[in-house]
Amino acid sequence: MTSMPDPADRVLARASLAEGNPTGWFEQLYTAAARGEAEVPWTRGMPTTDLIAWAAEHPGASRRALVVGSALGDDSELLASAGWAVTGFDVAPTAVEAARARFPESTVDYVVADLLNPPSDWHHAFDLVVEIMNIQAMPRDFRPAALTSLAGFLAPGGTAIVSEVAEESTDVETWQSPPWPFSRAEVESVAQDGVTLVSLQRIRGGARHWATFTR
Ligand SMILES: C[S@@+](CC[C@H](N)C(=O)[O-])C[C@H]1O[C@@H](n2cnc3c(N)ncnc32)[C@H](O)[C@@H]1O
Q1: Would residue 35 count as lying in a domain?
Q2: CATH code (residue 113)
Q3: Choosing a second label site near 191 at 20 to 30 A (CA), which of 1, 150, 172, 211?
Q4: What is the pLDDT of residues 37-71, one digit of tens each?
Q5: How does pLDDT run across 183-200, given as a tens digit for each residue?
Q6: Ligand 1 binding pocket includes 162 (Cβ within 6 Å)
């Protein structure tokens, strides 16, 4: 039996990571997709369903929200429509341009930025920080720095949402990265530098962690 060729995202990721660049492949994938040469596997054309439920119960009332890895903008737009003053950032310029083009009337501030080296004025600046399935897309070596940045964004009294694939639900023998799943303890390690865990549950039949934190 012939095996299927690897999809473009996996091929690009492998090459980028071999050069020691954990994020370069995202821009390459978005530009290849814009040329019709690849698919962006996380593009669904709608917000994350779990965030839809959360936003319905948490109106923003003009408070500041930061969406990490904003991709094509669906989660950012959801929160903006729930009254949050949203900044969405992504390391891939083509994703940021695409989000702006998809939502030309948007109130969201779409920004190119790197979670591993974020703007200093984002420190303790956001009442809501949303991290869904981005940090797991970088190799584990980068996880401590990414989690420190993430915790640093949260303002006193704010909420951080963190959702990643649950390592406990994967078969580690056969799992192919990216993504690199999170153990429960790794999710809990967002609680650092004054940030505390509020809730941690498994969603989607146990496949993902969904955690909330505050400061
Ligand atoms: C797997 S996708 C998930 C997108 C979206 N959060 C979702 O749940 O569908 C990861 C996104 O994060 C972005 N990204 C990856 N590393 C990043 C970094 N270091 N800083 C900012 N964005 C990053 C990628 O360009 C991509 O759009």
Answers
A1: no
A2: 3.40.50.150
A3: 172
A4: 999 999 999 999 999 999 999 999 999 999 999 99
A5: 999 999 999 999 999 999
A6: no
Contacts of 97 (CB under 8 A, 6+ apart): none
**134 touches ligand 1 (CB under 6 Å):** yes
Q: Is residue 104 part of a domain?
A: yes
For residues 33 and 155, give the distance between their C-alpha atoms in angstroms, rounded to a whole number.
36
- Ligand 1: residue whose CA is nearest its atom 17: 91
d(CA 176, CA 1): 20
Instruction: Answer yes or no: is 107 within a domain.
Output: yes
Do the Cβ atoms of 207 and 171 come closer than 8 Å? no
What pTM was estimated for this model as a whole?
A: 0.96
Domain-located, residue 20: no
Number of domains in the chain: 1
**Domain range spanning residue 159?**
46-214
Q: Whose CA is nearest to atom 9 of ligand 1?
A: 42
For residue 68, the tally of other CB atoms under 10 A from its CB is 26
